[in-house]
Each structure stands twice: as structure tokens, then as C-alpha cells.
Amino acid sequence: MEPVVSETDNSDEPKYSEQRESLLLIDDHEEEVSINGRKVRRRGIYLLPNLFTTAALFAGFYAIVSGMRGEFETAAIAIFVAGVLDGMDGRVARLTNTQSKFGEQYDSLADMVSFGVAPALVMFSWSLGSFGKLGWAATFIYIACAALRLARFNTQIASSDKNYFTGLASPAAAAVIAGTIWVCADERWVGSAMPSALPFFCALLTAVVGFLMIVNIRYNSFKGIDLRGRVPFVVMIIIVLAFGLVTLDPPRILLGIAVLYALSGPVLSVYRRTKTD
């Protein structure tokens, strides 16, 4: 069996360092990594990517609190902010070569809060709470499917195709739920002003989006985009135009993008099957 070398095992290390660490109430994180074929134990965690993950976690927490206070538009925006931050932490880790097992697990737990619990609870507070047991069931289905999706992703992360997700990614699912809430809140459909058929539609939407996270359908991950490479100048013009388009009506355009992405998986799956047949 290959020996494991600890980078902290240093006989020349001052004794006062060990005494100081023994007084700490929280043990330092130690992780086993492979360097040039040797297994080495490293202590501590990478700061930069975990800062983005913590910010995404806080945005999800803020969305839950805002939903409890009836500030549904703010809650929806916070979920979208969490999605942006979540997309940045992994790319920052890859660009700076600061990936770690701790970061993967921390990111997954933060995703469960920001894209599993937060959108479901905000949706429940906004429309499903008054819909009886069906509202409870739809909310739980979404949360459970988000947990199952993240657990499956963690177990398959080493063997899966990096260019595709199996099932709808939880940030995209949360974007559909948050976008719906944002658009309806912008229309002032809150409380007694809500159309009578809307809670039923939202319950159905919440359950369906939840199931899309666990179905065996491939979605493009866009991880193959090279952010460090050169691109034609026209690409920057398209990006500027896209930002300008979003600013015209953020809730409806972002919801439209999220819905199109959520539908792209089933549509392309049916297309592939009909093409092979």
C-alpha cells in the first residue's frame, strides 16, 4: 500500500505551534491529495473559491428570509445572484488550480440551500402555502429531487462527461422557480390579488421542475467554453447586446432563458431518438 506523506510532519517545526493548535476548539482541515504519484496530506482550505461559495450560500439564506418576510421579488433576485456566484466558484477554482474535495462538498451543500431549499420555500410562502396538502407535496418533491440530483452528481463527478449534465442542474431549476415568482411579483400577483388558478399551476410547475432534475436526460453544461482563449471581436458585441436585452425586462427575459434551457433537454432527447429511429 502506498505510503501517505503528511506535509505537516516536520521534526523541525517549533513545539509551540503544536501547543497552540491543541488549544483550538476547531481542528484544521486535512485533505489527502496526489502530487507526482505520491499521496500527500495538506492542511487548510483554499480561500478564493470558497469565498464565492459562501457568498452563494448567503444569497440563498437571504432569499429564504426575504420570502418569509413577504419580499418575494427580493427573494427571487437573491436566488439569481446565488446562481451567478455558484457559476463563478467552480470556474475560479479551475482557473487558479485550487480545486479540492472540501470545495466540492461545500459547494454541493451550499447548492442544496440556495437552489433546493430556498426556491421551494419562497414558492411555498408566495403561493403554495394556501394550497393545502398539494402545496406541501409539490414543495417536498422539489426539495427531495434537488437532494437526489446533487447526491447523484457527487457520486458520478469523476466518471461523468464534463460537457453534459444528467438531469436539469439545480441552479437552472431554481432559476425557473425564481423567475416565475419574480414575474408574478412584478405583476403584483400576491395574496388576494393572485389569480385563483395560479397556485395549481405553480404546484404543477414546482413538481415537474423537480422531476427534471432527476430524469435521465442530458443537458449541455457549457463547461467546454474556454474563458482563457481568444475569441472574435463580434463575440464581445453579442455579449454586450445580451446584457442590454436583459436590462429591458430582467424578470421575463431571465425566466424565458431558464425555461428554454429547461425544455432543451427533453426536446433534444426526443429529437435524438427520432433521428436514430
Characterization of the model:
The protein is mainly alpha-helical and 277 residues long. The protein is 65% helix and 8% strand. It contains 9 helices and 5 strands; from the N terminus they run E-H-E-E-H-H-H-H-E-H-H-E-H-H. The strands form 2 sheets. It has a 3-stranded mixed β-sheet with strand order 1-3-2, with no helix packed on it. Helix 4 (101-126) runs parallel beside helix 6 (170-186). The N and C termini lie far apart (50 Å). The model is unreliable at 1-6 and 8-14 (pLDDT under 50).
Summarize model confidence as the mean pLDDT. 85
Strand/helix succession:
EHEEHHHHEHHEHH
Flag low-confidence runs. 1-6, 8-14
The strands making up the biggest β-sheet line up spatially as 1-3-2
**Rough outline:** globular
- How would you characterize the largest beta sheet? 3 strands, mixed
Helix content: 55-70%
Round the Cα radius of gyration to an integer and report it. 22 Å
Gap from first CA to last CA: 50 Å
Number of helices: 9
Q: Which class do the helix and strand fractions yield?
A: mainly alpha
The total of beta strands comes to 5
Fraction of residues in β-strands: 5-15%
